[in-house]
Amino acid sequence: MIEGNLRRDPLNKCWVVFAPEKVNTIIQQSSEKEAKFDINPYLPGLEYATGKDILRRINPAYADKGWSARVFPAKNPILKIESEKNFRGEGLYDTMARLGAHEVVVETPKSDINFDRLSIEEIADAYSIIMDRIGDLKKDSRFRYILVTKNRGLDAGGTINHNYSEIKAFPFIPPIIQYKLDNCIQYYKIKERCLVCDIIDQELSDRKRVIVENDMFIAFCPYASRYPFEIMIVPRKHRNIFEGPNEDVVKELAKIAKTVFYKIRMALNAPAYNSVFHFQPVNSRESEDLEAKAYHWHISIIPRMSNIPSEMIEAGIFVNPTLPEEAAEFLRNIRD
Ligand SMILES: [Zn+2]
Q1: Distance, CA 289 to ligand 1 centroid (Å)?
Q2: pLDDT digits (tens, 9 = 90+) for 87-101
Q3: What is the DSSP string of 22-51?
C-alpha cells in the first residue's frame, strides 16, 4: 500500500489529504445507497472492533452498557499522530506527511435513534466529551486546526448508521476556515467589532431568519444561505472557542441543538445532514489574540437536500432554491 501524504495545490492554495487506503470506502460510497456494514461496530459489546478508548462518559442511565459516550482513534485514520511533519518540496510542489489526529466520538450506545431523541443530558455528554478532546489536542503545538464534524446518513458521507462525530486535528488551517478567519480579522481591524457579534445583533433585530433562541444561543438561517435550510447555531456572547468544562453552556447548547435537530427531522422528513463546529485555529502564536477577538465560534448545519453541482465544486457558486426567511419560518412553525 502506498503511504499517502499531504500535498498543496499551488493553484487553489489548498492542502489535499491523499489516503490511498480509502479507495474501497470511496468507491462504495459512490455506487451504493445501502449501509455497508452488516454489524454496527459502535454498539456496546463490540468495543473490541474499534480503537481503544481515549475517553468515555458513564451516565447512570447506561450503567448496564458500560458507557454513554466514548472517543477512540479512527480505525482507518486519514491523519496519523505519530508522523513527523516532514515538510519538503518536490520541484515546485509542497508535500508533507499525514501528520494529525483522527478520532471518533460515539455519542450514544443506542442504535438507530435520531440525535434529537436523545435526552438533553445525553447530548450534553456528547458535546462535553468533544470539548475535552479539543482541550487536549490543542496542546500539541504541531496542530493548527481542530475540525469537528458529524455526517449523518450516507448522502452526507456517514458510513455507519449510528450517532457519531469525528475530530480531526490538521497541521494546517483548512482553506475555507482561513478565508472566514481572514474576513473576520479584516472586519475587526476596520470596525473594532466582531463580525458574528454584529450578525447576531442584525438577526435579532430583523427576526425574520431566527428559528429558536435561549439565554446563551441563537439558531438562524444565514441571510445568504448557501444551501436550503442551512442553519447556524451561535453563542450570543463573544467566544472564540468552546472549551469545557462549563456545564451550563454545554447544557444550553444541548437544548438548542435538540430543538433544531428535531425541527429539521420533522420539517424535512429526517434528511441526511452535516453538522460542523467552527472554532478559532489553535497554536496561532503571534496572531492568537487578534484571532480570538475577531473569530466567534459557531456550528453550521447543512441538511443534504440537493447534490453538489459543478458550479459549486469548481467555482464556489451556490444555487439555493429556498429563501432563508421562508426556511426559518417553516422551521419556527414546527411545534415540539
Ligand atoms: Zn463575536
Answers
A1: 13
A2: 899 999 999 999 999
A3: GHHHHHHHHH--S-S-SS-TTSTT-GGGSP
